[in-house]
Amino acid sequence: MKRVLLTCALLAIPALAAAQQATPPGFKAFDDSAPRETLPAAPLVFIAYSVAWVALAFYAFTMWRKLGKVEQDLAELRRGAKR
């Protein structure tokens, strides 16, 4: 059984190598002189993400400041309640 499997494996190696080297029909190799694809909307996408991140940072900053103010108010209330 081992000999049969080994023989099948050895016979399959050249077939696999030939299958990898054959090019499919309609395949064109990469040409360095070909024009490159560009995304005309790339600057707009960059600007949109920048605006979104700035808005998120502004929101987080304002929430941080408001939370600090609420903590100060709570501290004052606790000091007032202890008297």
The major β-sheet equals: none
Radius of gyration: 34 Å
Mean pLDDT: 86
Order of helices and strands: HH
Principal-axes geometry comes out as: elongated
Percent strand: under 5%
Distance between the termini: 92 Å
Number of strands: 0
Q: Helix coverage percent of residues?
A: over 70%
Detail the poorly predicted runs.
none
How many H/I helical runs?
Answer: 2
Structural class: mainly alpha
Features:
83 residues; 0% strand; mainly alpha
Could you please describe the fold and organization of this structure?
The protein is 73% helix and 0% strand. The chain starts with a helix and ends with a helix. The chain is built from two helices and no strands. The chain has a domain at 43-83. The longest helix has 41 residues, at 42-82. The chain is mainly alpha-helical and 83 residues long.
